Each structure stands twice: as C-alpha cells, then as structure tokens.
Amino acid sequence: MKLIKQISTLVISTLLLSACDYELSPWETDAHCPGMTISENLKWLKEVESTIDPAADFQFAIVGDPQQFPKDLENTIERLNKNDSIKFIVLLGDIAETGIAQEFEWACKALEKTTKPILSVVGNHDGLSFGQEIWRNTFGPFDYSFTFLETKFIAFNNNQYEFENVPDVSWIEAEAAVNEDEKRNHTIAMSHIKPWENQPTLSATLKEAGIDYTFHTHDHKFIHFQDSDIMLPHHVTANNLGQQHAIVTITPETIEVEDCAPACELSFPTTRN
Amino acid sequence: MQRILLLLILLAPLAHANESPFEWEIQTGALKGSVHAAIGYELASKHFVSLGLGYVPSESDRDAFNIYSLNYMYRGTTEYSFSAWDNEINLKPINFGVSTIYADHEALFFSLPDGIPSGYYAPTALRILFEYELAAEISSDTDVFIKWSVLDVGLINYARNYSFYRDNYELLGLAGISSWGVGIRKAF
C-alpha cells in the first residue's frame, strides 16, 4: 500500500511536470495563440470572399468581452460555426481581464475552434499589464481596416485610459474616404468602447467622414442608439457571458442587427434628443 | 524594500542556533522569477511564512524587474520513505501555500495612474498565487521541492469554467492553469 502511494505520487508529479508550463512570472509577453494574427485572418477572409457572389448579402457576428468565461466563448464559436450565412467574426475586445498572457491563451484555446476568420479589436482590459505587447505579438495592429463585398470596416482603438492619443480621428477619416474608382455600399466603424462622453463631437465627425454604422462592446449589455441631430447608429453588444453576441446582416442597401442572448431578435436604434 | 530583503537573506545564515525556526530557500520558475530567494520562519508546527525576492530577466519588449513575495505555507507531516542511490529519502506530499507577489515594473501599478477613476481596475502589480509543493527530504536539514503555482485569475476561471479546462487541458484541466518550478530549502 505504501509503495503504491509513493508510485502514485511520483507518477502524478511527473504528469503535472510534463503537462504544465514553466513560467517565470505572470507578466510574460509571449502568449501561445497560433493563427490569431489579424494579417492571417484577413488573408483567410479574402479566400472566403473569393467564393461568394459579389452582389450577395452576408452576415458577420460580433462577440465582445469574453474575459473570464472561456467556456461561453468556446460555445459561442461552436454555435457560430454551424451558421453558414456568417462569413466572419469580429471580436471586439477585452479578451483578457488583467492583461496576463495566460488569459489570452485561454481565450485563444476557445477561438481556435473557429471555422471562420476572426478579426480582433483591442479592448481596455487587453491594454493592462503587458497586454499591449502581447496584443502586438499575438494579433498585430491596434488600428486597421478591410473591405468585404464592398463594405468597408474600420477598426480603431479608443481605449483612452490605457493608450495615448486615441482614437486617431484623422486616420479614421482618411480610411472612410471613398476612392474615385471604388464602389462601396457601406462604411462601418468598430471599437471596443462607444464614443466617450468627453468626446462629444466624435459621432458627428464619424458621420461627416462617411461612417454609416458603429459597433462596440464594453458596457456588458445591449445598447442601440442614435442622436437625433446626427442620426449615426451606435450598437453595443453585451458581454459574452451566456453566449451573448450580435449578428449583423448586410445587404447592398441595408444594415440590420440582431441581439442574441443567445436566441436572436432584431434590434433597432433608439433615437436620443 | 529590495535592500532590506537582500540583507535579511544574507544575514539569516548567522542565526545558526540548533532547532532554529529560520530557513532559506531558492527556487526557479512557478511564477516567482528565474531565481527567487526567500527567508522563512516556522510560526508554529506545520505553519511557515517567508519573505522573498525574485528576478525576472528582460525580454525584447519588456525590461527586467523584481518580484517581492510574502508566502504562507502549511506543511503536513505525512512522509513516505524510500531509498535511492544509497540514501534514505523522505517524500513529503502534503504542502499547500498561498503567496502575495508584487512586481516593481513601471508598466504595472499598485495605485491607479492619474486620470483613471477610482476603483476602475484592481492593481496589476499585485497578484496572489496558490501553491502546491512536493518536497523530498534529502538530509536532516535540507529539502528539495517541485512547486506548482496557480495564479488568482486561473483559480477563478477554473472554478467558473471547469468543463472548459477539463476538455481542453490535461489532468482535469489543471495543466491549463498551473506553472511549475523547482527549489531547495535548508534549515539554519
């Protein structure tokens, strides 16, 4: 009996040693997240786009604030995998709660189940600790844009407590401008946080720049509004707890949003005075 | 703080009375640095506290920094003896601890930086580790040990998302949240 206990202890220890990581500190800057870079996913998105009729309607999903709930994120990804109408997923930030490499790795373990490209946008919690370094190494840029079936998506960083000089409004305006030879149906802006109260002119600036809709997360609840004097719809997706997410349907003429908790229902913006 | 800890660790061997409640230990890994030195004290039977100083070397995108630690450990008296290489070795499998660690790097904070509202974030420089240790007594006053540490957020996530870790990592998911290290401990 004694020998069995000794052998069991040694076997369990050996297994733990071989399975666990040797980490110097919680504050490492290298997270193991294969396949999550924005450039890899944009390349994948181009391949997806090449298989679709250019005039077709399409859907994309928005997932936000999955920090601390990787199981819900995994379930959401598996749920979205089953929907062929959804062509890609936008992950709107707060992948980590405290900016620790392990937190990014847990989320990535769930995200790697995807059968669709995932475009990630940095959240305020992702910028904590050495999260900014991890983001650059794992995902890439904080601001970027892409076009899918004549709709332009502009992803920008507006986490003003963690980053300096954000958002880069002149960059957004330049990205929103339509080139002479370009055919564009819509221009969509995406950031983790909806326009801050200390940036009261941002909505109007975005509208003037040609933005048709903006998407955000951060508030952990569904919000959908537009100001009566600007009429630029802002949609906020709830956090991912309970597999909450949003699905956006794009036609050449319209943009339609569904709030999914996880069952989906159409959402319309409330007009504020 | 760093100098006081270093002084304590250096002076500790002078307290060499028999049955001294003091001990020192050196470890690597398990989230306390590439090297971590600590001086420990036996508060009561099976109950130990220690103060330590660890060093984390620089990386291409991060400067080096120190880790200060305060640890409490419960060490049970259960032992399994066996012989190896003509030596009697006592395996001690019941050792559980908790550490508070603090990192002194400018990118991390204890108090919120200016401009961030009160209570917006918990301190990023201060973390809690939950530890398990398998120790082997290789002489009457010396133990070597393997340590597994789980970060505060790891334990919270594991409790909230048990099936996720169980399904995606080995050993009931514990491999997904644990980091290992090794060390040696010697009584004065």
Summary keywords:
heterodimer, A: alpha/beta, Purple Acid Phosphatase, chain A, domain 2, six-stranded mixed sheet, 7 helices, B: 188 residues, mainly beta, eight-stranded antiparallel beta barrel, STPP_CPPED1 (chain A), Calcineurin-like phosphoesterase domain-containing protein (chain A)
Description of the structure:
Chain A: This is Calcineurin-like phosphoesterase domain-containing protein. Chain A: GO terms for molecular function: hydrolase activity. Chain B: Keywords: Signal. The complex is a heterodimer of chains A (about 270) and B (about 190). Chain A is of the alpha/beta class and about 270 residues long. Chain A has a single domain (about 25-270), classed as 4-Layer Sandwich (Purple Acid Phosphatase, chain A, domain 2), CATH 3.60.21.10. Helix content of chain A is about 30%, strand content about 20%. Chain A is built from seven helices and 13 strands. In chain A, the strands form two sheets. In chain A, strands 4-5-6-7-9-8-13 form a seven-stranded mixed sheet. In chain A, strands 3-2-1-10-11-12 form a six-stranded mixed sheet. In chain A, strand 5, helix 6 (about 170-175) and strand 6 form a beta-alpha-beta unit. Chain A starts with a helix and ends with a strand. By secondary structure, chain B is mainly beta. Chain B is globular and about 60 Å long. An eight-stranded antiparallel barrel of chain B has the order 1-2-3-4-7-8-9-10. Chain B has one domain (about 1-150, about 180-185): Porin (Beta Barrel). Chain B is about 15% helix and about 50% strand. Chain B has helices at about 1-10, 150-160, 160-170; strands at about 20-30, 35-45, 45-55, 65-75, 80-85, 85-90, 95-105, 125-140, 140-150, 180-185. The interface between A and B is large, with 42 and 54 residues.
